[in-house]
């Protein structure tokens, strides 16, 4: 920040080669950090594709945002710029990493370390976020349809279809964007996908009261202080009183 002006953000990603760092920085519209010391809060951390260990470390740092490496033209430049200007934490991941990592738990741990999420709220936040991420991945970016089945005889087939769908590079590299910010005594957590969307009013709880699947929206509504679904079903925003 110069002379009380707006904060100047820079891109850092030591595990990526120089060419790839430069390519991503240009796509995000931000300068590369030089070799000197920088305040962590001014850095957008780049992580290599699929690098779960890097993501976990970055979540526990004080960086302004985290962006996983992705193919050219897929990175969330406009969304990142908006989050940085509003002071929101943004974590942008590929679908593959968002699914294979225990993303809800790691994101909540990062919020806890950053002082955004009280320990007393963590259980409700993590469970709600877990359901939101499942919806964003399975029903959004992967367009799997249906739900995680209760019938064990169908579960293996579902898992095989899921593995095959994640092998499709177009779907596996679609973005899952998580963001978090405080406002009016509430922690807000947003999950956005790039799927086809849905009408949340058309979703009804399963008829079978013992069903273990199909309850994602119901769980999110009950466990949070508020759920808002926007962008044609592609974005879910959870609020938690803190």
* Rg on CA atoms, Å: 18 Å
**Strand percentage, roughly?**
15-25%
> What string, H for helix and E for strand, traces the elements in order?
EHEHEHEHHHHHEEHEE
The largest beta-sheet arranges its strands as 1-2-3-4-5-6-8-7
The percent of residues in helical segments reads 25-40%
Terminal-residue CA separation: 30 Å
Please state the average pLDDT score.
Answer: 90
Main sheet specs: 8 strands, mixed
Assembly annotation: single chain
Structural class by SSE content:
alpha/beta
Shape summary:
globular
In total, the number of strands is 8
User: DSSP helix count?
Assistant: 9
Description:
- By secondary structure, this protein is of the alpha/beta class.
- The protein has 9 helices and 8 strands.
- An 8-stranded mixed β-sheet has the order 1-2-3-4-5-6-8-7, sandwiched between helices.
- β7 and β8 form a beta hairpin.
- α5 packs antiparallel against α6 and α6 packs antiparallel against α9.
- The radius of gyration is 18 Å and the shape is globular.
- The protein starts with 9 loop residues before the first strand and ends with a strand.
- About 2% of the residues have low confidence.
Q: What is this structure, in a nutshell?
A:
By secondary structure, the protein is of the alpha/beta class.
Secondary-structure map:
Elements: E1 10-12, H1 18-28, E2 43-47, H2 52-59, E3 65-68, H3 77-86, E4 89-94, H4 95-100, H5 103-113, H6 119-141, H7 152-166, H8 169-172, E5 175-183, E6 186-192, H9 216-223, E7 226-230, E8 235-241
Parallel strand pairs: 1-2, 2-3, 3-4
Antiparallel strand pairs: 4-5, 5-6, 6-8, 7-8
